[in-house]
Automatic annotation (TrEMBL):
Keywords: Hydrolase, Metal-binding, Zinc. One of its GO terms (molecular function) is metal ion binding. Belongs to the metallo-beta-lactamase superfamily. Residues 99-284 form the Metallo-beta-lactamase domain. It comes from Phocaeicola plebeius. This is MBL fold metallo-hydrolase. InterPro entries: MBL_superfamily_lactonases, Metallo-B-lactamas, RibonucZ/Hydroxyglut_hydro. CDD domains: OPHC2-like_MBL-fold. The keyword Hydrolase applies.
Amino acid sequence: MKNYVMAGAVVLSAFLFFGCGGQNKQKTEKEMNADTIKTVCTRVTLQKDSLLATLTLDSMKVTWIRDNASSRLMPRTLFPDATDALMNSLSLQEGIPASVSTFLIECDGKRMLFDTGVGAPDSRMMEGLKSLNVKPEDIDCLFITHFHGDHIGGMMKDGKVVFPKAEVYASKAEYDAWMKMPADKRAQVETTMNAYKDRLHLFAFGDTLPGNVLPMEAIGHTPGHTVYKAGKLLVIGDLFHGFALQKDHPEICAQYDMDKTGAIKSRKYYLQYARENGVVMAGMHLPVPAFAE
């Protein structure tokens, strides 16, 4: 069994997320968060009051940055297809530990940021970048998994772009679908993408992007939802909103999934892909520190 290292040299025993079962007794939110620390990716070093976590994969340094200011539980009501009996058996009646996360990859002299969080007054992404001595203008590429506000919100502040030099990459399927939505639904997307229009690149799934990043189709949560493969890392966006539930029950959707059939298919596919290819998954709503293997 590997060790899980936290700041302050606190070492916890760790289990792999796949095959990790729930317990029957009721748990507090604090206890559930402690469990997630012990069960996520076993090669991660947590830092800065659980704001950052680092992982090295070959020559690639990956840093998880937590955007949410306080601990986060996805409410039980978000998963109406899950039975009470199942939630009770997994001790998830009070909610499912989660996060709002972004990921920074540093490789071959490039800094690549995957999603940007909410951009709320108490969001912590910028604090995380600052603690890494990374300025917004240091970001070379922004890879966007989809256009929900908790993924593109950090691209703008006070009506201005936050990342003045970053090239922005998003799927054409996602862009085209949002541009056809009612004006009130697409307003944030339209404003943000127009602000970056001179540096916005719309790709097709399977294109090779800078840094040898491969965008892979994962439609369902949104019409152009994208998973990115970078070496042995798989940035999975919003495939999971409640990993402790959905890892063993991918057929259960969160209400946020726009196309349930597509979301289920994508979850099942990438769970199997991760197992077969030995990749580490990095998810925007996985529990702290948002890596799983």
